[in-house]
Design goal:
Number of strands of chain C: 0
Order of helices and strands of chain A: EEHHEHEEHEHEHHH
Largest sheet of chain A: 3 strands, parallel
Radius of gyration of chain A: 19 Å
Number of domains of chain A: 1
Chains: A alpha/beta (213), B alpha+beta (181), C mainly alpha (301), D alpha+beta (391)
Strand order of the largest sheet of chain A: 5-6-7
Largest interface: B-D, 42 and 43 residues
CATH class of chain A: Alpha Beta
Oligomer: heterotetramer
CATH topology of chain A: Rossmann fold
Distance between the termini of chain C: 33 Å
Number of domains of chain C: 1
Strand content of chain A: 5-15%
Strand content of chain C: under 5%
Distance between the termini of chain A: 20 Å
Order of helices and strands of chain C: HHHHHHHHHHH
Structural class of chain C: mainly alpha
Helix content of chain A: 25-40%
Largest sheet of chain C: none
Chain lengths: 213, 181, 301, 391
């Protein structure tokens, strides 16, 4: 555990002494709960439709797939037409595109970013390496199955997937959201212990609270 | 200035330093085996007198059969258009080496990587004990030959069932010559 | 003075029209900016979808009371600015709650939202928010200075603090506008306008590549939706002030839409082609190029 | 007006040379740029300690993209290695294929036909154009000028079309393999390529007008991130970053490879060694690549084999030896150090990417005293790609 995460005593400017335990004080570690859908079916349908048509991607290029995200947002493919846009902070994003292989070190950051996003949130796994390891099936540092660690809604196969494949993957995701089946965040909350156990088995120095947001 | 060949350079250097064998790979690339104690004065000499000012890379090779690590310091003389690699052999057990970060600051990065990936100690190098690429790695350093990455991956990462991996040689033989000839 | 209750539904109607116009206008402006980059850009109704989505998010977290109040202050800054300024000149229905001293109130409301946001964002505890807020406040203050000077010049010129009277004085032909009768004041004010629109070269407050994305970093779901609503209303309200003070106001809705569109377009056109200033560079820019114009305007009056 | 930091407020150094920073004093703030941060190039992180708006210490953290290529290649045969090497560097993968192929050919003693050399040069120059276009967009984007990125990505897509036509893939081409290249040029490629080049030149004219002649862009970048030419060799700086400091370091000229001796060009050199000059050197280098491609298309032979007969790749053993092969990629010197031990598998492969030295030691030095606003621009101007740091 790093020094700055250990318990310590801090002196405030006016002379008080405070004991700080960073892992508890700076984060809320309440586990996520299952969030029910809106009471009325019509309202939920409206919300789902709006969610599907307004996908805000978290700007986190986790792997080499990120290179095809740029053409996606520029003149040739222009995903803005479909209501897809970048969001630089996890609080405001609702779609996490795992763009390619995840090394263990990145997985840790991905989990934290994912947990900071607000329910409902969606995960798209990009590239063969998120499905079964792909090219890196025998690497000691990349995970082989993304759905062991995060609830995935859509996988897009390929190495690397072309922007057209991405667009069709997003269309598929929209279809799933509109039909009300994209409940990844709730699945994560229901199987929280299972996901956490998987994550902890891989991440060797777990120096953060179980749930942080 | 007449371009001197790598062998001539070797002869010149040999008058000053005790050197090991020379391998001429190309007309502008050669590798010289040197003793661990000779490395630092030799590097200084090459840098300041012979124009090898650019440290291209510093890396290690694991010769597990001989029980030794080979450290390769590759230097480049841009104006002379030639490269010289220095090989230093270290015993594999408790491998440690002097740091050269004061000659080239970039060497500190290479040494951090070697420390992490091969487990070679560089006691004086700055920030050498910090995690560089891996995080909290406690097992065998992964670039060592006795670390089996496939085994580690299968044990750690829950591979998705259904993937078949074949040895290419045996599989192609089976496909092309099914009767076993 | 008797308060006329009918003004409340009337101003609500104004608010409704302006908010919708703001949503559509920002989308159209995004489309125009996208065209410069050879893209199609977002659909014009995209803002509504984003808004519904943000209201429809299931979970949200809070960092404290001020964190709640930040977006509320921000929105009330925008709404307040709009409500105390006559939107359409000469109509009973859309003059809102304008009164004799509304110019001073408008100046205050322009600043109010930024202050509220500063309080809320600071409570969210994110370092990017804090940096963004300190940048934002210093830049808004610097940008406000030439605007205030221009407003004083205009007030001196027309000898009144009532926006309605200022608009009345500009009626009767294009050449009566402040734009022509006091060009220095308008120039100073328009430069300040660029600074307050959060578009390049003065968007260092948001600056996604440096401090993603400044003060609203921690805001999400309904808070963000409030901020989005404000982003639709506030620029329009500000443009209304500018339009009334410098461009002769608007006597009917079509004229209003056209003038607002053109003034908005001005900031987009500048913004699309420029990278952003650092905060101390932009402050220096305001002080060096815009403030002297404002001073000249006052001296000339 | 030049930006003059006040050194007096900075922390003193401890005995071991590290900075004496007390985070609880309230004077300093620790700020992480990355890995989840739009202003960072790729997936890496910079840990900044700031005092006010100024950075007093920066530490680069990498390893988020580590896949252990050098290990994976040790358990793949020589021919199996060839499809995975390109994955090391995403924006310009061809240099990996080229360096690997040449290293293997050298140790195995394989001669490559003449025409393959021309096609390899063509591919490498096309890749360089792609990488530079991406860089220009990133450099402008780091300063908030998004429209440049739109334009350059548009023409980059046109270039990717040419790649697709030639190799069948947009990003990972897997075209240059040990022994030659996979195929010749398709029909009509010359004509379409020339059209694309014209389009690129047209866009670059626009970029020059809007970006390089822009007063605000100049104000932000001139004088920022100055690298002393004396530091170049100590810090292992190569490529355009070194050329912007006035040193004509260009492997294409210094140690000519492929068909570069037959082409007519002079390395682009800048003078001021700041962010603006680095961007400008890269723009002019891009135009030079356009010119080089025209020369290649005019001079290259139309007929002839593109591939030599390889031994049976399933049991292809290469005798013991070691070599280092380098090339000039868009960021600097790219090299492969290959060691063989007489078996069918490489004993050790080491990739030397230019980002390795740029993003670590050099960036950590340059970032001190820099304004927070300028960190992104500075980082982009070194043109680093994290995957080649950690492989």
């Amino acid at each position: 555990m790093r020094d700055e995460l250990k318990k310590r005593v801090v002196k405030t400017p006016d002379g008080q002494e405070l004991e700080i335990e960073p892992l508890r004080d700076y984060y809320c570690e309440a586990p996520p709960t299952v969030m029910p859908a809106a009471y009325s079916k019509i309202v939920e349908g409206l919300f789902n439709w709006a969610r599907a048509e307004s996908l805000w991607i978290l700007g986190f290029g986790t792997g080499c797939g990120a290179i095809e995200m740029r053409p996606l947002m520029t003149p040739r493919f222009d995903a803005y037409r479909y209501g897809i846009q970048w969001r630089p902070t996890p609080r405001q994003a609702n779609l996490f595109v795992i763009s390619g292989y995840l090394s263990v070190k990145t997985l840790k950051r991905v989990i934290r970013s994912y947990e900071q996003m607000q329910n409902p949130k969606y995960v798209v796994g990009l590239g063969s390496c998120t499905i079964n390891g792909g090219m890196y099936f025998d690497s000691y540092n990349t995970i082989t199955r993304l759905d062991e660690y995060l609830p995935v809604d859509v996988y897009i196969a390929g190495c690397m997937p072309r922007p057209e494949a991405l667009l069709s993957g997003f269309e598929e995701l929209k279809r799933i959201i509109k039909s009300g089946k994209a409940e990844g965040a709730n699945r994560y909350a229901e199987n929280f212990d299972w996901y956490k156990a998987n994550q902890k088995r891989v991440i060797q120095d777990w120096d953060m609270p179980d749930y942080n947001w | 200035m007449r371009q001197i060949s790598m062998r001539e350079l070797y002869e010149i250097l040999k008058q000053i330093f005790p050197l090991g064998e020379l391998t001429e790979q190309r007309s502008n690339l050669a590798f010289i085996t040197v003793d661990r104690a000779q490395l630092r004065p030799l590097l200084l000499h090459l840098r300041d007198r012979e124009g090898f000012t650019h440290l291209v890379l510093l890396t290690a090779v694991d010769w597990i059969e001989d029980g030794s690590f080979q450290l390769t310091y590759l230097l480049c003389d841009r104006l002379g258009q030639r490269d010289l690699g220095l090989r230093v052999m270290l015993p594999r057990d408790g491998a440690a080496m002097e740091s050269i970060h004061d000659l080239w600051p970039t060497a500190a990065t290479y040494q951090r990587e070697l420390r992490e990936m091969f487990g070679i100690a560089f006691p004086e190098s700055p920030r050498v004990e910090e995690d560089f690429i891996l995080e909290g790695w406690t097992g065998t350093p992964p670039y060592r030959r006795d670390f089996d990455t496939l085994k580690y991956s299968n044990e750690t990462f829950a591979p998705r069932p259904g993937r078949e991996t074949r040895d290419p040689e045996g599989y192609m033989k089976e496909q092309l010559y099914p009767d076993g000839n | 003075m008797e308060f006329e209750w009918i003004k409340i539904p009337y101003s609500m109607l104004t608010l409704f029209i302006v908010a919708n116009y703001g949503f559509l206008l920002t989308a159209v402006m995004a489309k125009i900016a996208a065209r410069v980059g050879r893209r199609h850009g977002i659909p014009v109704w995209q803002n509504y979808l984003d808004l519904i989505k943000n209201y429809g998010l299931r979970s949200s977290i809070t960092h404290g009371v001020m964190y709640y109040l930040g977006p509320v202050f921000r929105l009330s800054g925008g709404v307040g600015l709009l409500l105390f300024v006559p939107t359409i000149y000469g109509t009973e229905m859309f003059s809102n709650m304008s009164f004799a001293g509304d110019l001073i109130l408008a100046l205050y409301f322009v600043f109010f939202g930024a202050l509220g946001m500063a309080l809320g964002a600071a409570e969210s505890g994110h370092p990017h928010s804090a940096i963004g807020v300190s940048r934002g406040l210093s830049q808004v203050t610097a940008a406000e200075l030439p605007f205030a000077l221009a407003v004083f010049a205009v007030a001196l010129q027309y000898q009144t603090l009532s926006i309605t009277e200022i608009v009345a004085a500009q009626q009767g032909g294009v050449l009566h506008w402040t734009l022509f009768s006091n060009p220095f004041a308008v120039a100073a004010a328009m430069l300040s306008f660029l600074g307050s629109m959060m578009r390049p070269p003065f968007d260092v407050v948001l600056a996604p590549q440096e401090i993603p994305i400044g003060p609203p970093t921690e805001y999400h779901s309904s808070y963000l939706a409030l901020l989005q609503t404000n982003r639709a209303i506030f620029p329009i309200a500000k443009i209304v002030v500018y339009m009334n003070l410098f461009f002769g106001g608007a006597a009917s809705w079509p004229v209003f839409f056209l003038k607002v569109f053109l003034i908005y377009l001005f900031s987009v056109f500048v913004g699309v082609a420029f990278p952003r200033f650092r905060v101390e560079q932009s402050i220096r820019w305001f002080l060096v190029s815009a403030v002297p114009l404002g001073v000249i305007a006052i001296v000339l009056v | 007006m030049a930006y003059r930091p006040d050194r007096s407020q900075y922390p003193s150094r401890k005995a071991d040379g590290s900075l004496d920073i007390d985070l609880t004093s309230g004077k300093y703030l620790k700020l992480w740029q990355g890995p989840q941060h739009p202003g960072i190039t790729g997936n890496m992180a910079v840990e900044l300690t700031v005092c006010g708006d100024e950075v007093v210490e920066g530490k680069t953290h990498v390893g988020y993209l580590h896949r252990g290529f050098e290990k994976l290649m040790e358990r793949r045969t020589f021919i199996q290695c060839f499809p995975i090497v390109c994955r090391i560097c995403v924006p310009e993968p061809d240099f990996n294929e080229y360096c690997y192929a040449v290293a293997v050919e050298e140790l195995a003693g394989i001669e490559v036909p003449e025409r393959a050399h021309w096609i390899r040069t063509l591919i490498l120059e096309m890749g360089r154009i792609n990488s530079y276009l991406m860089y220009l967009g990133g450099q402008a984007g780091a300063l908030g000028q998004g429209v440049i990125g739109q334009w350059t990505t548009y023409v980059r897509d046109l270039m990717l079309d040419r790649f697709e036509e030639l190799t069948g893939a947009r990003i990972y081409h897997m075209f240059i393999m040990p022994g030659g290249v996979r195929d010749g040029l398709p029909d009509g490629f010359h004509k379409r390529m020339k059209k694309t080049l014209r389009e690129i030149e047209k866009t670059l004219d626009d970029v020059e007008d809007v970006m390089f002649n822009n007063a605000v862009f100049k104000k932000r970048t001139v004088g920022l991130g100055y690298i002393d030419p004396a530091l170049l060799d100590t810090y292992g700086v190569t490529g355009p970053t070194a050329r912007a400091a006035g040193v004509a370091k260009d492997v294409r000229k210094d140690q000519p490879y492929l068909v570069y001796p037959e082409l007519d060009f002079e390395p682009v050199v800048g003078r001021d060694s700041d962010v603006y000059t680095r961007a400008d050197v890269r723009r002019r280098d891009l135009l030079m690549s356009v010119d080089l491609i025209r020369q290649i298309l005019a001079k290259m032979p139309d007929e002839g084999p593109v591939m030599t007969e390889l031994p049976n790749v399933l049991h292809w053993k290469i005798p013991r030896g070691e070599t280092y092969v380098r090339g000039e990629c868009s960021r600097g010197e790219y090299g492969y150090y290959l060691v063989t031990d007489g078996s069918g598998y490489p004993r050790r492969v080491n990739v030397r990417g230019p980002s390795y030295t740029h993003a670590m030691a050099l960036l950590e030095r340059l970032i001190v005293n820099c304004n927070i606003s300028d960190v992104a621009a500075l980082m982009v101007s070194l043109h680093t790609y994290p995957p080649e740091i950690e492989r």
